[in-house]
């Protein structure tokens, strides 16, 4: 009682030779199918190199192309030869030239001897298969595929589309229920011979000849007719990436493969010398457990596929540049934008830094330069504070900053004097928390030492910019968390809005705010607005600001002290 | 894209190939070992001038990574670079006295060499101060990468330029022959790169790093380009257009994913800022053979008097490729 290996080989023949020799020397007969596309000289020297082994045979050569019937035909011929030539073989193991046994062959023989009637073949109904390429699962069995997917992709796709459009369907032969699975199986003599000697084999072969990727469905479907003793899993460890191509193992996977406890792994890079020398050295038994356990390898490869498909959120780099509206996030972490707060309050950034424990910057997009926290000239990731560099690509500047400071929340001030190019980026970004006190920029003008005519001009300009900005923030496409108050409303109830903003930034911060930031002296601000109005400008973003200076004062006095609790 | 624009690009590619063909006359063969090139070998194409001191480590680095043959264009070195390379069995050398500037900074020469000798080979086009780093490069050689790229149906591989620099003045530690330049130039900027898309060639345009930060802070548009596509499964109809920043046909420039995922990519560590750079600057100011009237050298020269330190508090010290991966400068993609 033993296991025989059928090997399908098309490249790296010297590695196939090593592996075949390894099997043969451990008492397992081998039948090798070499792709007809391999050059004759190469083939002959390959045959020659194994001529000293009597239990290694070569089957009739087919020209093999991925996704076509030729691979099934090759395995059929080789399997027939195996069953005929080696009568003591009980299990037939289908493997490829780039498969490598990870555990001693002895252990595989014992494992199979303990399960003499079990067929190891992954066989899943089409409804339950998540891993098909090009969205073809059930349609593999009902459409025709006369064109090569690799060489004539356009024809392939168009013909599929045509058949779909006209609702064309092939008849599946009676009694067959389509199943799919890994093409690397291990079947018992009883089951395999039943498949190969079936009187209806001609019908089935004729049908599967035009099925798409029949090597993943031929045995997987037919085995259901002849055996009830099916373990629906492959003994070969083989992982596929998102394009349906097998992941390749290298020398640095040695420890992973050792701990996997799998019998055979595919596919091994043909120059992975350390893997071949370790696993083909029969003196070493690296495996401990009895049952295969490829969990860790699974995780690594599924992470790789995820990185390829989703990528790291908020990262823009040489090989990831999501187009507009693509990718699931615009930035990598939540951040807060405060507009008007630093105009209204004295030392607002210091107060905020204490209240939330985040990194608080000044006006990052200010016209004079980038105000990084602590007035640093250079910040995380070696970002420069030069306005020209920032304005060269303001959106990139912001996304880089957020990416560079992963793990630390960023807050910054913003206003109508700043570069407005980031408007749509932040408005559409779910990571942005934007709080606006509209019209507060006027406080800076009010306190400035400019001529009133220039103040009036500047006020008109800033009001226009902020109005446009607010329009963006109020558009229906906004994904950011936006809060907007007019200056007058905000002053009415200072603490509540601040409390809600800060609660949102740091949920851990359960303490209630005890101290509001100190508001600037607004005595005469109402009159200032009135003066602007008198000059023919209409300052509307501040809300209804009380004009009388005495109300101004009483309000201010009443608000003291700032302790509320 | 409109058909005439596509056709214009085709003409441009043909023109580049024609210029490469014309430039063949400027190259005289000094050592021809190209008969040693075997099917499937990874090749390296390099243009150099007076790089004698850097060559020993350069050769060692790339031989260990699995480059099988080196194709050098020597632009009239007089420091013994050519003599040093002569005799190595895996090196072929062409010599030229023609102008570097007039050959579009060596592009015509490289295109010609690549067209003639690199067809159907994975070809790495780098300068002597550029060191290719890719995912798993500490455990896997370049052929592992190229086999995987072949397997995945990918023809070109991106590796952006990262400027490396020492801490302190750049001429403080003299570079010794055979030394790993990254022992001196250990530092780099980890996150100040600016990306935009070039719609015509559909490549990414990357600028930034210490050169933009220090020498081009008032003129970022003219800051040096850092995007590079140095590793290509070459076909004789391909052509580099500007250095190795972009190629035609445009499909080769699609090294970035636009649907949200990450493609695999590497990095070229640019060990330009060693003490040798100061000498080069002096020389280039005389020769004016480099890009855009050597404005980069000029900018550096103007700054050298006051503050030649590229290092800053936020500079990152180089450890390995995994660090670059985590920082988001390169990606493993779906290679695992």
Keywords:
heterodimer, A: 565 residues, alpha/beta, Rossmann fold, five-stranded mixed beta sheet, 22 helices, 38% helix, elongated, B: 336 residues, Spore Coat Polysaccharide Biosynthesis Protein SpsA, Chain A, seven-stranded mixed beta sheet, three-stranded mixed beta sheet, 9 helices, 16 strands, 20% strand
> Do you know the CATH topology of chain B?
Spore Coat Polysaccharide Biosynthesis Protein SpsA, Chain A
The major pleated sheet of chain A works out as:
5 strands, mixed
Choose one word for the global shape of chain A.
Answer: elongated
Structural class of chain A: alpha/beta
The amount of helix of chain B comes to 25-40%
The N- and C-terminal alpha carbons of chain A lie at a distance of 85 Å
Oligomerization state of this entry? heterodimer
User: What gyration radius of chain A follows from the Cα positions, in whole Å?
Assistant: 36 Å
Structural class of chain B: alpha/beta
Order of helices and strands of chain B: HEEHEHEHEEHEEEEEHEEEEHHEH
**CATH architectural type of the domain at 335-559 in chain A:** 3-Layer(aba) Sandwich
Side-by-side strand order of the widest sheet of chain B: 1-4-3-2-5-12-7
> Per DSSP, what share of the residues of chain A sits in E-state strands of 2 or more residues?
5-15%
Q: Which residue ranges of chain B are poorly predicted, with pLDDT under 50 across at least 5 consecutive positions?
A: none
Instruction: Just give the CATH class of the domain at 335-559 in chain A.
Output: Alpha Beta
Largest interface: A-B, 52 and 61 residues
Shape of chain B: globular
Radius of gyration of chain B: 19 Å
**Spatial arrangement of strands, main beta sheet of chain A:** 3-2-1-4-9
- The total beta strand count of chain B reads 16
GO molecular function (chain B): transferase activity
Protein name (chain B): Glycosyl transferase family 2
Organism (chain B): Pacificibacter maritimus
Keywords (chain B): Transferase
